[in-house]
Amino acid sequence: VGRGGHGNAMDAAFKLFSEVVVNTAVYHLPTVLILTKRDVFREKLDRVSFSSCFPSFASDKQDGKASMVERALKYLVNVFFSLSQVDRDIYARHVAVLSGQEVDSLISEFLQAVFVSDAFIE
Fold it and tell me: Of the chain's two ends, which shows fewer C-beta atoms within 10 Å, N or C?
């Protein structure tokens, strides 16, 4: 994944995610990807061009209704998804911070998706 040669926390996150999703102990299980600090990400996009870090990101407005933040987050989720080398369910969400209520909501949503998933039907 090209990021303009910049090593950073995102590189570490991509590396860790790619190691976890191919682990044979969990490859058959659905995965939850939660991108936090959406507010910090938004502020950083005001200072740094996302396409300078990810040259393959199309900076033109392909979806006129989506903000730059939404398009950049969607791009990042797709990068994470592409790192999974097995066909599996991956659930992604992006939030500013996780409150207790948001954690409960995410867990509930994930469990609902898992129990209707083929991953647990034998």
Answer: C
